[in-house]
Amino acid sequence: MDKIGKLHELLKFSPDDNFLQHALGLELIKIGDEIAARKLFETILHRDPGYVGTYYHLAKLCERVGEDSLAKEWYEKGMVAAKKAADHHAYNELQSAYEDLIY
């Protein structure tokens, strides 16, 4: 069974598992299914705005499809969440990507 199949199997037992959904989103991006990945990332962040790692990937996905204003919003929300979680590494990564986008 491939990674995507394994993740789907695991999600049957834990359908709201952020880690599994995030991992599935990353695998879907690899095969070019950005629409499904985006839905997963948005679901995670609407359910759990503190799941900091997803902001970067969702914002990057928005950038790739030309939705720069939405990407900017996700970066900004991610920086707020990272600061709240005291996740300095994530904050710096989000800030760098944000600055690359706006400058």
Characteristics of this structure?
about 100 residues, mainly alpha, Serine Threonine Protein Phosphatase 5, Tetratricopeptide repeat
Q: What can you see in these coordinates?
A:
There is one protein chain. With 103 residues, the chain is mostly helical. It has a single domain (3-102), classed as Serine Threonine Protein Phosphatase 5, Tetratricopeptide repeat, CATH 1.25.40.10. 80% of the residues lie in helices and 0% in strands. It contains 6 helices and no strands. The protein has helices at 3-13, 18-30, 34-47, 53-64, 68-84, 88-102. Helix 1 packs antiparallel against helix 2 (18-30) and helix 5 runs antiparallel to helix 6 (88-102). The longest helix is centred in the C-terminal third of the chain and has 17 residues, at 68-84. It starts with a helix and ends with a helix. The model has no long low-confidence stretch (mean pLDDT 97).
